[in-house]
Amino acid sequence: MYQNFFGLQEQPFSIAPDPHYLYMSERHQEALAHLTQGLQGSGGFILLTGEVGTGKTTVSRALLDQLPETTRTAFILNPMLSEDELLATLCDEFGIRYQKRSATRKTLTDKISKFLLSANEQGEQCVVLIDEAQHLKPQVLEQLRLLTNLETHQNKLLRVILIGQPELQDLLRRRELRQLAQRITARYHILPLTQADTERYIAYRLQIAGANRALFSHAACVAAHKATEGVPRLLNLVCDRALLSAYTSSSQQVQPKHIKQAIAELEGTDSHQTKGTLLKVTAAITLAVCLVVLATVVSYFLLQPNEPAMGAVEQKQDKYAAVERLAVAWQLPQPPVEQAFCDWVRNYELACLTDTLSVSQVQSINYPALLFKDQRPAALVETTDRVDTNQWNGELLMLYQHPFSSGNLSEDEQKQWLQQQLKQHLSEADAQLSSQQQFRQLQRQAGLPVTGRLDAATLAWLSSRYYQSGPRLRNEVGEG
Questions:
Q1: What are the TM regions of this chain, as residue ranges (predicted)?
Q2: pLDDT tens readout for residues 178-211
């Protein structure tokens, strides 16, 4: 609508990740250089992170445009895949033919390996680029790592570029992914634009679109930067609407009042009532949407697949909010509403302990626990402080890191791990006892229910001693 008025040939502030409009700020130049150098090195993984809207996808598209013709690429936009789906997607992206109905994981892996070896013999490099990689399951990341094991004396036959939000860095710090983290040879975190870069960014995109004069005043650029905090995607939204506002008022140049009007329109409020930045309002809108979703969920997922429904919407809302807090304690993303919570956490190599324990037993295991009273969450225990047992009937939900959930250990290796743990926590005399007696002795020492077998509470206790990562109960005696 405003293109002819301002003499523009194209829409300058589209939010589509068009490399033609990539403004190479100093930070974007560094990001692109890190990706390019990483592909030239001998490592298997390259990491690019940044907040939403900072230009990660646009930089990755610019990288793809610079790759030589001898590079074979697989671009995965939907990371919500299982291990088998990942392998099938790689085959589809690389053009590898396979029988879809009868393909097994081994068949797909063998075909990919054969393809990579053939590409290397022809002097070709194979690259996998995964966007929104913070949503990848740990098992899928481990499958990717195994694929990168294929190498010559000089190079990896497959390079993987992981692009995601800062949560991806937290995911890669997990103990079970430490081998993958050690194989990241290049990493870069994109920050938002500075105020000077914001003004150059606006001018650059206008120039690419055909502008032959300054369409934004300096004051308007400052106002746009202040409102968006230098996030390119938000800048595009604000600047596009500001041009429309200037056009409707027949102004030849965008002024601060047009920025203010644009923000007001994007927020859906009157310009005289606009308060705060666009980022704050966006966060508020997101929070409101989440609250509406929580308030209207009728078929809320259950803790266990066969658990009977609670009936009351209020109970379901309380339960969701409670398990959401438990997920936050473990630095997990927001739990889905359509999947059982204890099924979902298996994606992160965690397991649920649902049992009836005492306060001292919860403290002995030393993981945060969600306590229940009459099927309703009563409290989330995150400290060693005294718990009001009047508000609790002993039922709880606790997460713990399951040492065997990844499937990487054989049955013999699982037995060996268990024997090592028992040996570490029992005396030499106890080590000569039968397995049942050893478990009984360990459970007595730990103050756990004495069952004489490897139950979930005992495995959680061993897990909390074996793994260094994961939340623990805080001792707040004498603190603040």
A1: 281-303
A2: 888 888 888 888 889 989 999 999 999 999 999 8
Q: Do domains 1-17+194-267 and 26-190 have the same CATH topology?
A: no
Report the number of secondary-structure helices (H) and strands (E) in the chain.
19, 9
What mean pLDDT is predicted for residues 216-228? 94
The tens digit of pLDDT for each residue in 61-84 reads: 888 888 888 899 998 988 888 999
| Cβ pair 23, 201 in contact under 8 A | yes
H or E stretch including 88? helix 83-94
Rg (CA), the chain: 27
CATH code that applies to domain 1-17+194-267: 1.10.8
Q: How would CATH label the architecture of 315-466?
A: Alpha-Beta Complex (3.90)
Q: Is the pLDDT at 276 greater than 60, yes or no? A: no
Homologous superfamily in CATH for domain 26-190: P-loop containing nucleotide triphosphate hydrolases (3.40.50.300)
Q: Please name the residue that has the structure tokens 């040939």.
A: 9
How far is the C-alpha of 158 from the C-alpha of 136, rounded, in Å?
A: 18
- For the chain, domain boundaries: 1-17+194-267, 26-190, 315-466
Cβ neighbors of 7 (< 8 A, separation 6 or more) are: 210, 211, 212
Mean pLDDT of 214-243: 93
* 397 vs 394, more confident: 397
Bridge partner residues of 74 (DSSP) = 128
CA 450 to CA 463: how far, in whole Å? 18
pLDDT of 162 higher than 90: yes
pTM across the whole model = 0.54
Pairwise CA distance, residues 84 & 226, whole Å: 46
User: What token pair was written down for 411?
Assistant: 């049955």
